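We emphasize that the prediction below concerns an isolated chain of 158 residues; any contacts that depend on oligomerization or on bound cofactors are therefore not represented. The input was used exactly as deposited, without trimming of termini.
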Amino acid sequence: MPGSAITSCTTDFTDASERAFSIVCRLAAEGAARVTLLHVQPPGRKDRPGWREESDQLDAARLSRLAGELRACSRAQVEGILREGDAAEGILRVAAELGATRIVMGTQGRGVAHEVLLGSVSHHVLRHAPVPVPLAPPQAALRGEEPAAAEATEGESR
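Result of the prediction step, given as a token string:
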């Protein structure tokens, strides 16, 4: 989408988020104007002093690497954001703050039973986001195929 406003790409630095990042690279190369790379860290551990600082440094370096890759393949304005807290709520909050036009995420594909019992960050975001949420499914990577994005917007059946 040439000139589209803000694409927010969530990352937890897993294979699933790498697949989502490949979608964002394609969108940026096609003309997405701004891309925000977001990582929401779990709440700090009080039993291990210095843990948060170490984690911040590592995750900031990871976001910087991804931002560099995006800048190399596009003209998009790219920023990385680190937040702490509940991942799903953090993603929705940052997307609202930025006025994101879409949220791109990977999904672990653990199945319906896992989601019902434990919940799923991608499922929660998909259900509550007021913007399209393209998901990079795990099957695409397993078959070596290009990730196909499944989109849903508010009001669509999920």
